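Regression report. Comparing outputs from two consecutive submissions.

Submission 1:
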Amino acid sequence: MAPTDRTRRRLVAAAAAAAAAPFAGLPLAARAQDAWPSKPVRVIVPFPAGGVVDLVTRAVTDRLAVVLKQPFVVEPRPGANGNIGTEAAARAAPDGYTLVTATPATVTQPLLSQAARFKTSDFVGVGLIGAPPNLFVVTPSLPVKSVKELVEHARAQPGKLSVTNPGVGTSNHLGQELFFSQTKLQMVDVRYPGQPQMIPDIASGQVHFGLVTAALALPHVREGRLRALAISAPKRWSELPDVPTVAEAGFPEAMFLPWYGIAAPAGTPAPIVKRLSDEILAALATPDVAARLDKMGTQVTPGSASEFDALMKSEVERWGRVIKERNIRGES
């Protein structure tokens, strides 16, 4: 007897379900990832609105919003040396809709402070953006014209020279501690609430040496109030072409960069990370984004997701070694 229409429909439905069963979970996940982004993406900046980290983030996310056709909502969440915003990102769902701007603090804060309730391994790198290089500067009254001369001068009178410190655990502070760990120099540490307050004291000779963000130091170097000995960057800066890199000055292992990049909570699907990484690299290759970053004094140092992930892992090892060797303790 021929099957009824109702029976035939049931048989067809059962056959279709059986054929699809082995792939039931895969197409749904694949479709969700293929559709990403289907709603606004939140990008947490763990530092104040209007600061350099916030501005660097917007230079890239403005471009991502255009090409991915969804808003990228930059959300500054400052406080506790970047811990508040970074912790919020670490706790977010790993679905590609919450990202965070990662900085060296993402690596160093868990090493310095028990108050940091996150680990660097809570994140996966998405893309390296760039870094604002630092200048090694001295007061013009100091009789040195190179980093080697500074080292010789300081070794001849241990403990007599002073160095500025804009905050324990900042990139500037850890960079100078890296330099001291390699040269075995000892200088008197003078604390400041930030870099702008340091500059007049270096210029006047009250403090002898400091590491200052290049864009911030530039007008003072040009006017002769500060003397630049080297730049901590992989290449010379076009604004000060006569100033050598730290490697050219004879101290390649002292080179550090306060990098900025985009990271996502660990477990974010690899296809989403890959797509984001590709779009960030494409954004950094556009003249308008590169020009915005250059205007902020940020050298473009593009890196893929895997390269940025490797950088963060290597930075954990590097700064962990410096922090232990120099007995650096975070401020409570």
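Submission 2:
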Amino acid sequence: MGVIQVQEPGLFTTVQDLGREGFGAIGVSASGAADAVSLRLGNRLVGNDEGAAGLEMTLLGGTFVFPERALLALTGSDFGAALNGKPGELGSSFEAKAGQTLRLGPTRTGARCYLCVQGGIAVELFLGSASTHILSGLGGHEGRALRKGDALKIGAESGAIHERRLSARALNELQPRKVLRVTEGPQSDWFSESARRLFYESRYRVAEESNRMGIRLEGAIVPVPSGGEMISEGVSLGAIQVPEGGKPIILSVEQQTTGGYPKIANVISADFHSLGQLRPRDEIRFERVDWETARSLLIEQEKLMSSPGLIVPN
């Protein structure tokens, strides 16, 4: 079993898989990769199951040493990766020879880059998932972000090394969006017509305080009904709450499982991966779609993700 030695951890690097669904009723959010599409693609490139654990790097990547050879893939945002000084291509698998070092720097595009390795990252599962849940300090590698000197075990390789890359169609159609498509939220009709119009016609900027729990937005203040509070109820990934003060918050992968603020809209499932690539100061806006369109867009995305032409030989 190989290892990854963490020489530099980057700004905020965690072990993530596709999360732990089904525990919201006991207050545990799913967590998992903020951009699940990129993690799935990276795992496909190295021959893993789509849900295998990889490394999620945020804004600034780390430096990793591979004492034994390994098949790697980088997906998501471009962090200017180099393997022993040679550029590592995004959206392509490549071999790290024994003793080589992979260095990543600051992001050049979105918020998160994913490092997948054939065999996956081997950590003890919590509620059936390898994902790090930072708020509770559980899962992943000791329930925390990586630190200098950490050593991560790599699972058993699933086969021979074959270098592959994402097709041009995959790279084009799965690009993160800055116009986020949404359906109406459960309290949409609580807001006045003018408040809803303001929300959909405005541009918002991602605030510095945003994290894996929620994406805070700056911009037009949405008039809030009933002082911005209500009896708490279950909330979903992508829900857009409007608290007192009128600044919307998009709930992300480490969201609280209940909330007491009205929800004006919900980001559609096909655009969840775009949320994971939003950086502070990025500008976004919202486009309303109906339920049937939201379902159709997700079906189309999943058809592309499972298509045989998604990944091609290098």
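Expected: both submissions complete independently.
Actual: both completed, but the second showed a warning that disappeared on reload.
Relevant detail on submission 2: DSSP finds five helices and 23 strands in the chain.
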